Amino acid sequence: MGAVKFYHLTARSLAEAARPLLTQALGQGWNVMLRGPDPALLERLDMQLWLEPREGFLPHGLAGGDHDALQPVLLGTGAAVNGAKAVMLLAGSPVDPGEAALMERVWLLFEGADERQMQAARAEWKAVVAAGLVAEYWSDASGRWEMKSSTGGAAG
User: Fold this and answer.
1) How does strand 4-9 pair with strand 135-139?
2) What fold, for 4-150?
3) What is the SS3 assignment for the chain?
4) What confidence tens digit (pLDDT) does each residue in 51-65 have?
5) Counting beta carbons within 10 angstroms of the beta carbon of residue 48, is it exposed (0 to 12), middle (13 to 18) or buried (19 or more)?
6) DSSP bridge pairs for 88
7) Domain ranges of the chain
8) In the 3-class helix/strand/coil scheme, how is 119-131 assigned residue by residue?
9) pTM of the shown model
């Protein structure tokens, strides 16, 4: 099991942060469940992932289609039905410790300009630590990702 990685977005948009992480996961051979609490946000992210960047393609789909189980990256609000080995959570989606323990990687992305997302991320950090999982806090405030805190352990 890998760490639950908290990504504090201050210099990047959600799509700009998600795309390289999703690309890395696919490069590892992992399917990913990207879970968010807001279907409208997931639809916007779906469009951004289809359209940007023009030179790249990230295979993905919105949950609710006929081929959800086959999607390398599935965007939705529910369970991972695509054999996911990694889960990307948007702030407001809780970390399920049982699910996290089975995953190679869990990311929780939250926007620093949104106080509700900040509060939700703090609550999730406490819950992850209380569940005995490794937690890492990453920030892009310097313009590049830097790990600012970790609860310890050799995380993957």
Assistant:
1) parallel
2) Rossmann fold (3.40.50)
3) CCCEEEEEECCCCHHHHHHHHHHHHHHCCCCEEEECCCHHHHHHHHHHHHHCCCCCCCCCEECCCCCHHHCCEEEECCCCCCCCCEEEEECCCCCCHHHHHHCCEEEEEEECCCHHHHHHHHHHHHHHHHCCCCEEEEECCCCCCEEEEECCCCCC
4) 766 667 788 999 998
5) middle
6) 34, 107
7) 4-150
8) HHHHHHHHHHHHC
9) 0.91
Torsion of CA 66, 70, 75, 80, to 10 degrees: 100
Tokens of 116: 């509700």
77-121: per-residue pLDDT in tens? 999 999 999 999 997 899 999 999 999 999 999 998 999 999 999
